[in-house]
């Protein structure tokens, strides 16, 4: 098989490898479409995960099952499948405790393009196929199905962790594809006023389409300052973080948060940084402000439920896809776009119609 890999930090290219071995509960899948993630860029170019060599990248795909292990019950070769970016080990005790993303160690549910080869291969391996794959509904186009791997589940998880509820005032910091889905999640959870913090024309247009009521441009001054001014000094009930960094963004988030409020962070921070915020803004440690941070939950049930949101028109993933490429060999072009992030980019997708 062939795959597009991180050869060493800062260096990518196509490599050849033996097809992965399929265990009794596993599946081998060929991609129908794949999408690069900002996390692939953090991994390759920002040393965010630590060094990896000859590791095939990618964790956003849908595909066709090629082979299954003897114990797989619900999938067979030829089935078209949704593939979550996070594929937990469902027998682990952390899964039993409700933290499947941390099965096999903290963040151990994140296997593709982290601890094993990812989905940018002509074949890729899925552990626990019955627990992690979902059938791809006929109504969902393969390019849009890639948004169900990571963007939709991650964004929605931010609003879930923050506990957005009816009438909440919510601020979403960072309106790339993850933030846009966090925003949509807040709207679906019943938020009232929703501030989208971003500046690019394209993302602002899509934020409004997903239900943002106010746009805050972080180039025009402090985010907290602008949001406090817009809310008569009251601030917001919930903050969803999908952009910014450890050293500045949490300070703004804690400052704009009402007492009793909570933050849902899904931003992938740099492991070398410290998260910084002011104790006074936290009510000198007693302001009942809560920070949650989490990896998107993976697994089959979650995929099936999120697919239902797409099939029934609650989420339109097509608004996220600004660039489409045809052919597996175009993966490097899509990665380069993600790396350089032109202003009109939200998300590129590569249709792999040339692999069999
Ligand atoms: P993105 O780069 O497309 O979007 C982030 C946006 O934040 C950009 O538009 C950027 O301009 C904006 N931004 C930067 N600094 C800002 C600031 N100070 N204030 C407001 N906005 C600011 O990235 P994305 O693909 O939407 O992903 C967002 C983050 O989520 C990334 O760090 C990614 O690695 C991470 N991620 C996490 C998970 C998870 O499971 N937790 C999954 C996927 C992606
Ligand atoms: Zn990702």
Automatic annotation (TrEMBL):
CDD domains hit by this protein: NADP_ADH
PROSITE patterns named among the record's database cross-references: ADH_ZINC (PS00059)
Coiled-coil regions, chain positions: none
Origin superkingdom: Bacteria
Keywords: Metal-binding, Oxidoreductase, Zinc
InterPro entries hit by this protein: ADH-like_C, ADH-like_N, ADH_Zn_CS, ER, GroES-like_sf, NAD(P)-bd_dom_sf
Residue ranges of domain Enoyl reductase (ER) in the record: 10-351
Gene3D superfamilies according to UniProt: Medium-chain alcohol dehydrogenases, catalytic domain, NAD(P)-binding Rossmann-like Domain
Molecular functions per Gene Ontology: oxidoreductase activity; zinc ion binding
Cofactor(s) of this protein: Zn(2+)
SMART domains according to UniProt: PKS_ER
Pfam families named in the record: ADH_N (PF08240), ADH_zinc_N (PF00107)
UniProt family annotation: Belongs to the zinc-containing alcohol dehydrogenase family.
PANTHER family, A to Z: NADP-DEPENDENT ISOPROPANOL DEHYDROGENASE, ZINC-TYPE ALCOHOL DEHYDROGENASE-LIKE
Full protein name: Alcohol dehydrogenase
